[in-house]
Amino acid sequence: xxxxxxxxxxxxxxxxxxxxxxxxxxxxxxxxxxxxxxxxxxxxxxxxxxxxxxxxxxxxxxxxxxxxxxxxxxxxxxxxxxxxxxxxxxxxxxxxxxxxxxxxxxxxxxxxxxxxxxxxxxxxxxxxxxxxxxxxxxxxxxxxxxxxxxxxxxxxxxxxxxxxxxxxxxxxxxxxxxxxxxxxxxxxxxxxxxxxxxxxxxxxxxxxxxxxxxxxxxxxxxxxxxxxxxxxxxxxxxxxxxxxxxxxxxxxxxxxxxxxxxxxxxxxxxxxxxxxxxxxxxxxxxxxxxxxxxxxxxxxxxxxxxxxxxxxxxxxxxxxxxxxxxxxxxxxxxxxxxxxxxxxxxxxxxxx
Length: 352
Fold this sequence. Notes:
This protein is α+β, with helices and mostly antiparallel strands. The protein has 7 helices and 9 strands, in the order ααβββββααββββααα. Strand 8 (about 220-225) and strand 9 form a beta hairpin.
């Protein structure tokens, strides 16, 4: 068990940390995404409200300039009713300067231009062009008064009035600077540029595509179309999940510290056990070495003693063989030599 924990403790703790992070990842991500979507919704609400307020300021300017242009068209009709020579190009160009308009066109019942302040346009079949088909309503209606705004440029105004003396109409064109200034000041781009949104992006998009949230180019986007205007609000995913990432970073640091502390505590508890095992092993090795040395010394001393005794015994036997036999005077020759009181022969005493 100790060996298992020693090898796998760090990996077990790391796996538990990863499992905990994975469990918390989905709900935290969903919560942060919902919060960002709600904030982008509020941002679009403010943007459309600002656009509506801008229109409230710009629309009266546009309507006033259109009405002014209609009055100028009626004035041209009255001049032509009294003097047809005013259909000359020079005369119409002079009217343009006096009335502050860009162009004056005069068309017949079929919608063909019979006169214009721009001589190159004379003979143009204006009624056959799709962009000017609306003017044909004034061809045979002397009391007609039509106004129109260019679809791509709201500052480009048109006013059409029917002629009273003959069938036909007069068309005036003006790129109004007052309308242009009002639209620039209260236009969508200007209002969105002044809208505070704390780093988020709000911009006008082309119509098309379903409204709702989606991810694109590393951002969470929210699309909405209202009153013919399509806006997209976007926030980078880094800002969307900033709180989640900070929480995960803090949790990771805490878990790493816990892993380090756990491993350190385990190693501190394991060290005395290792030292005790090493001491026991060294003591056993020392005892075995001492016993081996004692045995070797004993064998050596025993061997030396045996060699000495063997050497003394050999010398003793050799001296005994070479020693002359001593015969006691006055005794029997055949009588063996008596031993002394200690039981040793005299020669052996001498040797000893």
